[in-house]
Design a protein that fits this description.
CATH topology of the largest domain: Rossmann fold
Number of helices: 14
Largest sheet: 6 strands, parallel
Number of domains: 2
Strand content: 15-25%
Strand order of the largest sheet: 5-6-4-1-7-8
CATH superfamily of the largest domain: Phosphoglycerate kinase, N-terminal domain
Oligomer: single chain
CATH class of the largest domain: Alpha Beta
Distance between the termini: 11 Å
Shape: elongated
CATH architecture of the largest domain: 3-Layer(aba) Sandwich
């Protein structure tokens, strides 16, 4: 159902509570990847230009309801200042007397960043009292945190019971539009590529996609459970023995529906994931003492052949132990194939996005999602609490 969007709000002179996902990696007090910060900048700029004062809120990491200095949003505030070209004041808490006073003193065009929402247990508990305190800081609400939209947390769901209207920000709209384009009205052929370690992490997604795609390409550690289901010996490769029958059922479902389910033809093996080198062998030739750690060159080319036929491509998950150079070639080859696909492409997931950057093809992807878990749950067909909580658009 269509949701109210920020463009339809009268923001002049209003205090806007903007829930963003600024959950960027921080090490030694320094910010790493700033993709999510850059992604929310257009929404902030729109609100400021419309005459709003912005109360910005986010979580960072998993402090589990306690104040943890290493999870402070201070490095985020400093980087946002550079990106926006103006002061971003960090409040030392997100609820209580000081945040109320500072929010109340905000003038149009000014920005306040609340300290980490997850320093309070009420955030992840979706606590109504905590949500009411957050709501008291502003006049209206915008959620631009699609990456957290699968979480029923206080700043995402409960707050909308006390602060209306609740609208989607620009990034939220872009995410829903791109992913909706895959599920609701894709140009065909629609090809999905799945990687990652475990079948269990993506079983629901495999089942859901088999009802929608024309071809499903499976790599990464999860492929070996499927290969075992077909009767292949996979050496010491990662396998979920309790999912073999489920994988076999998925293979049968693909056959029955006429979906082309493509598995690796070869794999790069080594005795350990930290080995300095690997060698490509056919799937029928995996040594008993070795493990598959990447798709091989024949597989990379077979995947590329299918991708070249696609009008719509969606990709999530690396093809192997991508963080190790000896086992990165397959993932990088898939990244280049997706970038060269003639149709619309959508890529999501932290490791997968990192692969695009390493391959130097990020700018050639149709849409790069900022989300991980929400990306997968949306593709599984689940309703996302953060989207459901938004105000419906007027007819």
């Amino acid at each position: 159902m269509p949701k109210l969007t920020i463009e339809r709000l009268d923001l002049g002179g209003k205090r806007l509570f903007l829930r963003a996902d600024l959950n960027a990696p921080v090490a030694g007090g320094r910010l790493g990847d700033e993709t999510r910060l850059r992604a929310v900048v257009p929404t902030i700029q729109l609100a400021l230009k419309a005459g709003a004062a912005v109360v910005l809120a986010s979580h960072l990491g998993r402090p589990r309801g306690h104040v943890a200095p290493e999870y402070s949003l201070r490095p985020v505030a400093e980087r946002l200042e550079a990106l926006l070209g103006q002061r971003v004041e960090l409040v030392p808490d997100c609820v209580g007397q000081e945040p109320r006073a500072r929010a109340g003193a905000l003038k149009p065009g000014e920005i306040l960043l609340l300290e980490n929402l997850r320093f309070h247990a009420g955030e992840e508990a979706n606590d109504d009292g905590f949500a009411r305190e957050l709501a008291a800081l502003a006049d209206c609400y915008v959620n631009d945190a699609f990456a957290a939209a699968h979480r029923a947390h206080a700043s995402i769901v409960a707050i909308t019971r006390h602060l209306q209207p609740a609208a989607a920000g620009l990034l939220m709209q872009q995410e829903l539009s791109a992913l909706g384009r895959i599920l609701e009205s894709p140009e065909r052929p629609l090809v999905a590529i799945l990687g990652g370690a475990k079948v269990s992490d993506k079983l629901a997604l495999v089942e859901h996609l088999l009802e929608r795609v024309d071809a499903l390409l499976i790599g990464g550690g999860m492929a070996f459970t499927f290969l075992l289901a077909l009767g292949h010996a996979v050496g010491r490769s990662l396998v979920e023995s309790d999912r073999v029958e489920t994988a076999r059922a998925a293979l049968e479902a693909a056959r029955r529906r006429g979906v082309r389910l493509v598995l690796p033809l070869d794999t790069v093996v080594a005795e350990r994931a930290d080995s300095a080198a690997g060698r490509a062998v056919g799937i029928r030739e995996i040594p008993a003492e070795a493990m598959g750690l990447d798709i091989g060159p024949r597989t990379a080319e077979s995947f590329a052949v299918v991708v070249r036929t696609a009008k719509t491509v969606v990709w999530n998950g690396p093809m192997g132990v991508f963080e190790r150079p000896p086992f990165a070639a397959g993932t990088l080859a898939v990244a280049r194939a997706v970038a060269e696909a003639p149709g619309f492409s959508v890529v999501g997931g932290g490791d997968t996005i990192a692969a695009l950057a390493t391959a130097g093809v990020t700018e050639r992807i149709g849409y790069v999602s900022t989300a991980g878990g929400a990306f997968l749950e949306f593709l599984e067909g689940r309703r996302l609490p953060g989207v459901e909580a938004l105000t419906e658009a007027p007819a």
